[in-house]
Each structure stands twice: as structure tokens, then as C-alpha cells.
Amino acid sequence: MSGITAMNSGPSHYRDLKEQKKIDPKIEKTARDFEAVTLGEMLKPMFDTVDTSSGPFGGGSAEKQFRSLQVMELGKQIANSGGVGIAHRVYQKMVEMQKGGSRR
């Protein structure tokens, strides 16, 4: 993982913090949720172009209704499985912003 680091398999200093319980669980959850939503939004256009009407169980109005939910859940699964590194960067920035805000 060169430029991209995931929260579960990120750099050793991040794993060390996690093992020492210095990770704020609320900030971590918020960062992971942000990554899930971001990934879901990035996946939407891809799924909008997929034609499923030719499959035996594809197409129809019900599929159109639930497609957005499926895509958002896919984004959550990707984020919870380590993601693409967005949550790690967001976490770092949120902690940095909190420390800056507490100095005032």
C-alpha cells in the first residue's frame, strides 16, 4: 500500500495507536462513515450504467428503487473492510482540527 493506507492495515504508527487505545472511537466511526458515503457516491455512476434487464432476475422498478441502497451498503462494506485510505486521512485531519480548536 504505497500512497493509500487503510484504517485497518494502515501505517505502523496508526496500528500502534490503535493497540494503545489512543484512537478516539467516535472520530474513527465518523471518519469511516464519511469514507463509506464517499465511496457510495463514487460508485453510483458506475451502477447507473449497468444494464441488468437482460438477466433472469434483473431489471424492473423494484431494482431501480433499491439500487441506491445497494450501492450505499457496498460503500459501507468497502470502508469497513479497510477502505481506500480516505477514513485514515479524515481521522488525522479531525484530530488535528480538535487539537487546534482546544488551544483557543
UniProtKB/TrEMBL annotation:
Keyword Transport in record: no
Keywords on record: Plasmid
Keyword presence, Transferase: no
UniProt biased composition (Polar residues): 1-11
Residues of the Flagellar protein FlgJ N-terminal domain: 44-92
UniProt region (Disordered), positions on chain: 1-24
Sequence ranges of Basic and acidic residues compositional bias: 13-24
Protein name: Flagellar protein FlgJ N-terminal domain-containing protein
The species this protein was found in: Acetobacter persici
